Amino acid sequence: MGGERLATPGDDLPPGVFAAASRDAKTRRIGVALANYGFVQRASRELSLSLAKLPADRYVLRRYLVDPAHSSRWDLAEDRAEGAKADTLAQVEERQVVVTADQPLRLDLELPAWSSTFIELSPAAR
Length: 126
Prior knowledge:
The protein contains no helices and eight strands. The protein has strands at 4-7, 17-24, 29-36, 45-51, 57-66, 90-99, 105-111, 115-123.
């Protein structure tokens, strides 16, 4: 997102799960990228993500997913028409969340095996 870096991978992430986050000071958007690519694990992961020190506000949370069933031509030849649906990043969730002062935002997520998840938090329109 071209902004301030908020987080780097921590020691408390499950093996094979990687994370990074940033914030764009101008737009106040926050982005979190998560990847579940552990070769040995080959399994979906349940993860509780806590985002601390966020400005108190209402946000729109959008979650996007790349895995074998979403946004991926992994098993499709590039020239086959049915692959066109995989050309767009699949949004799998949109909802409003409220962040209160001095309280981390907690998100409970399932990360499918062999996947990348991107979470975008944008200030809600007033």
